[in-house]
Every structure is written in structure tokens, then in C-alpha cells.
């Protein structure tokens, strides 16, 4: 029994050693290939990172028109009334506007402009001021830098002559329609070109401080303005 047990033990040892000799090369091969595996894995991760960054660069940014916006402007203005046969041309000025975008498609704004106009033919000069309260509809894709705007505006207007005598002062109210285009040039900054036309009536007319009976004159007038603005959407 002792001899058989010893022989069996030696056979088991030989069998285990044989299996170990067969398995060991497999592990050694895996160990030798481990750096190659790490290199391939690192390469795949690097490719994934590069693809993700490229996707970030190609994803279009959204150009939003919500929140507070501010816009200084320069403008050209024409004003005419049949009562005085006046047509101001080549008038110019500037202004400042503030608004709030309730949604990307709808906003409200207030805009104040002022300038000097010259009467065609006589060369007489007038100062003209507008205070506008308006509602704006904005069209255009969120990812497009181009926006198209349509406004409805109620305005107060004040005008007076710049030459000494007689001193003429006019005040009135008007209603305007406006159209324009915006282009986002960098981040929340956009350029705007805008055209508006308005029709109104005089509420007050004074010559040398004396009120004129409004029933004796044609109270209607018309204005048109073209402006260029830089708009800052402060909350974007």
C-alpha cells in the first residue's frame, strides 16, 4: 500500500506539473501582451475624446433673444406734414433702447431717439424726438445667427424749430410699423438694421408759446426712420 500510495502521489505531481507547464505559457503570453493591450485601450480612449471634442465644435450654438437687451443706435429720419408742406430729409440722430424678451419669439421694448432735421428747400432746421413703446415678434431658428423682426409701436413725438423766430413747437402721438433684421456676430452681441414708418396727429401746437386752435389746421403727420443698432442680450 505504501508503494502504491507513493506512486500515486508521484503521478499526481507529474500531472499537476504538466498542467502547470501548459497553463504557464498562456499567462506569460497574456503578461507579455499586457502593454500592447494598454496601448490599444489608450488609443481608443484618445480617439473617443477627440470625437467628443469635434462634436462640441460642430454642434451649433443657440442664439437666444430672451431676457434683457440694450441697444444704442444711429438713425436717419424723414418727417412731413401737409399743414406746413414740410418734408425733412437728410436728418440724422441717435438713441438708446431697452427691451425684454419674454420668449424667443416675443418681446417688449422702449426706445428714445433724437436728432436734427433740415427742411428741404428752405434749409430751416428742426429738432425731433421720439419716445417709442413697442411689441416685437422675432422669427428665425434658434441655431441661426439671423433673426427677422416685426414691430408695432405707439410713440410720443416732440418737434421744434431751431431758428429764432417764430418759435414753433409741436407735440403729438403716432403709431408705427417696423421691420428689421438681426445678425449675431459674437456671443450675445447682434447687429440690427431696422426700418419703421409711422402716422400720427398733433396734440399740441404752439407758436411763440401761444397755443394754436387745432381745429384750424391739418393735424396729421408722417415719419419714417432707418436705424443701425448694436444689441446686447445681457442675460445670455
The number of distinct helices, counting runs of at least 4 residues, comes to 1
The separation of the N and C termini measures 92 Å
Instruction: Give the class from helix and strand content and strand pairing.
Output: alpha+beta
What is the number of strand segments? 9
- CATH arch. level architecture of the largest domain: Beta Barrel
Element string (H = helix, E = strand): HEEEEEEEEE
CATH class of the largest domain: Mainly Beta
Unreliable segments (pLDDT under 50, ≥5 consecutive)? 1-8
Helicity level, as a percent range? 10-25%
User: What oligomerization state is this entry in?
Assistant: single chain
Principal-axes shape call? elongated
Total individual domains: 2
Enter the CATH topology name of the largest domain. Porin
What is the spatial order of strands in the main beta sheet?
1-2-3-4-5-6-7-9
Question: How is this structure best described in words?
Answer:
This protein is α+β, with helices and mostly antiparallel strands. It has two domains: 1-59; 67-233, Beta Barrel (Porin). 24% of the residues lie in helices and 55% in strands. It contains one helix and nine strands, in the order αβββββββββ. It has one helix spanning 2-58, and strands at residues 67-81, 86-101, 106-119, 125-139, 146-161, 168-186, 189-207, 210-211, 220-233. Strands 1-2-3-4-5-6-7-9 form an eight-stranded antiparallel beta barrel. A hairpin with a 6-residue loop joins β5 (146-161) and β6. The longest helix is centred in the N-terminal third of the chain and has 57 residues, at 2-58. The termini are far apart. Mean pLDDT is 78; it is low at 1-8.
Amino acid at each position: 500500500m505504501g508503494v502504491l500510495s507513493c506512486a500515486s502521489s508521484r503521478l499526481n505531481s507529474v500531472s499537476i506539473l504538466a498542467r502547470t507547464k501548459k497553463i504557464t505559457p498562456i499567462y506569460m503570453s497574456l503578461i507579455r501582451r499586457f502593454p500592447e493591450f494598454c496601448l490599444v485601450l489608450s488609443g481608443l480612449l484618445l480617439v473617443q475624446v477627440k470625437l467628443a471634442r469635434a462634436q462640441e465644435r460642430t454642434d451649433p450654438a443657440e442664439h437666444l433673444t430672451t431676457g434683457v437687451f440694450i441697444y444704442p443706435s444711429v438713425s436717419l429720419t424723414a418727417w412731413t406734414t401737409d399743414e406746413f408742406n414740410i418734408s425733412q430729409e437728410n436728418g440724422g440722430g441717435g438713441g438708446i433702447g431697452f427691451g425684454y424678451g419674454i420668449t424667443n419669439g416675443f418681446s417688449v421694448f422702449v426706445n428714445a431717439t433724437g436728432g436734427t432735421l433740415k427742411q428741404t428747400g428752405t434749409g430751416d432746421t428742426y429738432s425731433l424726438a421720439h419716445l417709442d413703446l413697442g411689441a416685437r415678434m422675432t422669427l428665425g431658428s434658434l441655431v441661426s445667427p439671423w433673426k427677422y423682426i416685426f414691430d408695432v409701436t405707439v410713440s410720443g413725438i416732440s418737434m421744434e424749430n431751431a431758428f429764432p423766430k417764430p418759435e414753433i413747437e409741436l407735440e403729438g402721438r403716432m403709431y408705427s410699423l417696423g421691420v428689421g433684421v438681426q445678425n449675431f456676430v459674437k456671443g450675445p452681441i447682434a447687429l440690427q438694421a431696422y426700418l419703421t414708418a409711422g402716422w400720427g396727429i398733433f396734440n399740441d401746437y404752439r407758436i411763440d408759446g401761444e397755443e394754436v386752435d387745432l381745429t384750424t389746421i391739418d393735424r396729421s403727420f408722417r415719419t419714417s426712420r432707418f436705424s443701425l443698432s448694436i444689441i446686447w442680450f445681457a442675460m445670455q
